[in-house]
Every structure is written in C-alpha cells, then in structure tokens.
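Contributing new complexes? Match this layout with magnesium ion.
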Amino acid sequence: MKIVRFETYNIEPRWLFLKVTTDEGICGWGEPVIEGRSTIVEEAVHVLGKMIVGEDPMNIEHLWQIMYRGSFYRGGAIICSAISGIEQALWDIKGKVLGVPVWQLLGGKCRDRIRMYAHITPIENPTVDEICEAAKDKVAKGYDALKTPMMLPIRHIDTMAKVEQYVNKFAALREAVGKEVDIAIDFHGRVSPAMAPIFCRELEQYYPMFVEEPVLPENIDAMVRVTRSTTIPIATGERLFTPWAFREVLEKQAATVLQPDLSHCGGILSTYKIAAMAANYYASIAPHNPLGPIALSSCLQIDTCIPNFTAQENIRLENDLDLGKGIFKKPIEIKDGYVDIPKEPGLGFEVDEDVLKEFVYDGSWTCPVEFFEDDGSLADW
Ligand SMILES: [Mg+2]
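Output block (do not edit by hand):
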C-alpha cells in the first residue's frame, strides 16, 4: 500500500481537515491545525506530505521520524501540528485496513466509557449569574466536570480587589453547582509567577479540580514555583510540542495533570508516549481539545487506552459541529457527560464529503484582537 495524495480543507468555524488517500482506495482523516494559523499549517502539511508520498502508510512511527527528524530543523507549533494531523490520518488508515479501532492497536481498552468535561463560557464577558446558569445547565445535562477561564487582563502585580473579584466569582460558581462537581480553572498563561500563588492560595478553599497554565509554559521553572506554592493540582501542555517538551515538565514535577493536544504535540503515538512517561510520575492526562470532530475522535482513541486518564476537554458548540453533527455520518454522542468507547475501525467515523463541502471556507479566521492593559501595553491572551 502506498500514500498517493494529501488534500486539505479549511472548515468553519476555524478548523483544517486533511484527507490522505492510498493507492488501494482506503483514505484516512486528520486534523492538522492551529487556531488562527490554519493556512500556515496547511502549507506545512503539503511540504511535509511530499516527504512521505509513495511510502507505506502502515509504518507510522517510521514516517513520523522522516517528517520530524528528516529535515534538520525540528519542532515548533507549525511543524508539529502538521505532523500531528498527518499522523492521525495514518492511524485512521491503519485501523481501517486492519478493521479495528485505533485503541485496539495501542494495548486495548482501560475503561468502559470516557468522562468529558465541558466549558462554561457562554458569552464574552459573562456576568457571574450567566456563568452560574451555564454551569447549572451543563450539570443538568449530566456533566460532573466543568472548566471556566480566568478573567482578563491581569497586571504583573495586581490589586487586592482584582483577586477578590475573581475569587468571589469562583466561590459563586462552587455554590451554584455544589461539592460533587469538579470545576477546573484555566489561567491561560495570563497570570504572572508573582500573582499566580496569590490567586491559588485564595482559591484553594473552593477545591478547583486543577489550575491550567497558571503561568506561561515557556519557563518551566516559573511553573514549578507556582506548583510548590499550592495544594491545587496544576495542569499544562496545550502549548508544548513533542514528548521531549513534556519530559521537562515531568522531571521538574511542574504539573500533575498533562494536557497534550493531539493536533499539536505530535499526534496519537506521541500522546501515548507522553502518557507512559507521566504514569512513572503518577501524573494523569486530560487531553486538550478546543478543535473539531476529527481531533476529538483522535482524543477518544487515546482516552480509551491509557490507564492514567482524567477527563476529556470538549468545547461543545451550540450546533454540535464539534461532535461531527452534519459532518460525520454518525456524530459523536455525549450521554450524561460520558462518551461510549469508539467501536468503528480507525478513528471511528465516516466523513460525509458531500455535506463537508458546505463548511469549506478560506481559512482566514484569526484569534481575537489582543488584550491590552489600561496603559495600552499588551496583556497576555
Ligand atoms: Mg487552556
């Protein structure tokens, strides 16, 4: 079997799908994308794809090595995201050829269903009441794990009022959903190493499930400082690429929850390797995924077969497009906050290519405008 063709589709609202075709007619799908950088990753997919056209798609590790190590300059968000999507498509092909879901090829299943966690950011700049209502709505739908973001922007050193404002908001959220529901907080790297321990100290009493990216991930030692200052579990990983980057996080014990993104970190096998490393440190995996249904399908394969899994992120769009509704012949179904183990071969879905064309756009979506401090200087987004 040989790889013959790479086709990419920019898909609304901000995704990039990849179809890899073989000479035997079997096709695989992947989602190689960085939000707001879609067309750059698309170009990288075609450049890297040329390196493996004519090769046997079954040799996934070997082809990954060719794309990653074979061109001297390695890593980074763009190259790793392109490789990740290609790698997903190769697994999809392999599973379809062998007639089994991908998790069967990675040691079999470790659980009977997959716990999902839902975002509760209903609208931009929501009020406390609106956030609480959104949380209660998700709990009513069966979710027992939620995530809420840190407000914007926070100065390098900010006021007691700013700290109290956020902590009171979280306290209201805890009150609204009770003690049986996990609530994670995403600091989004917006908080400085000076302020993060202060926020964490005040939030501890409300038992957050974890604090995600309490500080930016470029300096792992700064994150270690925050981690050592608090009893709240610290999570990170969406902006780390390849298992090598996660090695440092684990070795320094900077986080206890790792969030590799299967569309950025190198793909399915890279995530499996990260999970295996994490298990040695008793750390768990909560795969990052704000992306589309192919990325989510890849996550579900990993969620099934790793022992140290916490919960799967899912943005849950109003129209369920992120679950494949209108794109997959059979969309992903969330029941009472859980997804059943995928049973179909490969990544477990069939794309309706006629319908898919309706969602194709030019890939021009960019991240929202940067955030600024009161004095006009840039704040971290
Ligand atoms: Mg995040």
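Reviewers usually confirm one structural detail per submission. For this one: The mean pLDDT is 95.
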